[in-house]
Write a structure and sequence with these properties.
The protein has a single domain, classed as Glutaredoxin (3-Layer(aba) Sandwich). Helix content is 43%, strand content 7%. It has helices at residues 14-24, 43-46, 67-77, 92-114, 134-166, 200-214, 230-239, 243-252; strands spanning 5-8, 29-32, 56-59, 62-65, 172-173, 197-198. The strands form two sheets. It has a four-stranded mixed β-sheet, covered by helices on one side. A two-stranded antiparallel ribbon has the order 5-6. Strand 3 and strand 4 form a beta hairpin. The longest helix is centred in the middle third of the chain and has 33 residues, at 134-166. It is globular. Bound molecules: glutathione (GSH). The site of glutathione has 12 residues, from helix 4. Glutathione is lined by residues 12-13, 40, 52-54, 66-67, 103, 107, 111, 115.
Length: 273
């Protein structure tokens, strides 16, 4: 019997929590949310998360939703895992502000990129009163919104990358290098080939960058430039060689390089969308 049950869909935001649980070495059960059947909108699931979004982590303190809330709760409940500064750490303030930024700005913008139609209902588009035009007008408006969001997302990543260049412990603990390692393969003092340990911020941003590279499938995604964010690129490369990430990739069918060379999930059960 484990304390935790992760309600997940492959390659959804639940992946961040799976990575955290794996990194922390915590046992957990999983419950698949069948996205093809829209199970996240069922009454049973909304009893766990009234917003109908994935993930939820069931805990002895009750179900928790919101990715960042779950991460912070886990970090505080399991401080020895060392994935996030403890409340008395001088590094806590900086880590907290970036965690909230990733959650309420980057992730929130990402949702607009993926689901623009949830933000521009047809009736809100100016041309909607013209017969037969509403759908086309809404599509045009969604595309414009997505273009604007892409620019913002790249700016967010570059800003976070600059912060990590100045403070490497934002992304990785136990690595004394002040700057990105040009050759992470030289860091082999742990079993998985990377020194130290990723932080919760790394797990979160790595998943979001993966999704930016893959979705939406019908839009240009070449704007995501790993070369523009060298600290993040190094962290992603290190992360995907860790046991925690390999195990998550196996469980969700994410392929051999899920963060630096993402391919669409091919899970044994469930679906990403
Ligand atoms: N703010 C939420 C966002 C979670 C979210 O966007 N989940 C997506 C999957 S990655 C979802 O449930 N999408 C289904 C939907 O919007 O109906 C969090 O951080 O947990």
């Amino acid at each position: 019997m484990t304390d935790y049950c992760l309600h997940y869909a492959p390659d959804n935001a639940s992946l961040v929590i799976r990575l955290a649980l794996n990194e922390m070495g915590l046992p957990y059960r999983t419950a698949l949310v069948d996205r093809r059947a829209g199970a996240q909108h069922s009454a049973a699931y909304r009893a766990l998360n009234p917003a109908g979004l994935i993930p939820v982590l069931e805990t002895p303190d009750g179900p928790i939703f919101e990715t960042a809330a779950i991460l912070l709760w886990l970090a505080d409940r399991h401080p020895a895992a060392g994935l996030f500064p403890t409340p008395d750490s001088p590094q806590r303030a900086t880590a907290l502000k970036w965690l909230f930024h990733l959650s309420n700005t980057v992730h929130a913008d990402l949702r607009i990129l993926f689901y623009p139609d949830k933000y521009i209902p047809t009736e809100a588009v100016p041309a909607a009163h013209i017969p037969n035009a509403p759908e086309e007008a809404a599509i045009t408006a969604c595309a414009a919104l997505q273009d604007g969001i892409k620019t913002r997302l790249m700016q967010h990543l570059e800003r976070f990358d600059q912060a990590a260049a100045a403070e490497p412990s934002l992304l990785w603990h136990g690595n004394s290098d002040a700057n990105p390692d040009p050759n992470p393969d030289t860091k082999t003092n742990t079993a998985d080939g990377s020194a130290g340990q990723p932080t919760l911020l790394t797990l979160y941003v790595a998943c979001m960058m993966r999704w930016m590279a893959l979705y939406p499938t019908d839009r240009d995604r070449s704007w995501l430039d790993l070369g523009a964010t060298p600290c993040l690129a190094t962290a992603l490369s290190r992360l995907e060689r860790r046991d925690s990430a390999i195990s998550a990739a196996d469980a969700e069918g994410l392929g051999p390089a899920p963060f630096t060379q993402p391919c669409y999930a091919n899970p044994s059960e469930g679906s990403a969308t």
